[in-house]
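For the sake of transparency, this paper describes our internal protein records without simplification. Such a record has a labelled line for the sequence and another for the backbone structure tokens. Nothing more is needed to write down the fold, since each code stands for a local backbone conformation. For reference, a complete record is included directly beneath this paragraph.
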Amino acid sequence: MLELRPTCENCNKLLPPESAEALICSFECTFCSDCVAKLPGNACPNCGGNFEKRPVRPSQLVTKYPPTEVVTFKPIS
């Protein structure tokens, strides 16, 4: 199950479960669409994988399967 990390790992923007701006790579590194647009080649700076739109978890399941509370914030130099 996806972690649904709560913020962009670069700018710390909030990305709630229903956010259409959240993008993830195969390791679930999570970035907002604005930060990904600035990355060369649609490549994750952490692992090199490509980004895809993060699926939206249906609201009726967010309580049963909540997003992670872990914040991974490490701005790209």
Observations:
- The mean pLDDT is 89.
- The first strand starts at residue 22 and ends at 24.
- The two ends are 30 Å apart (CA to CA).
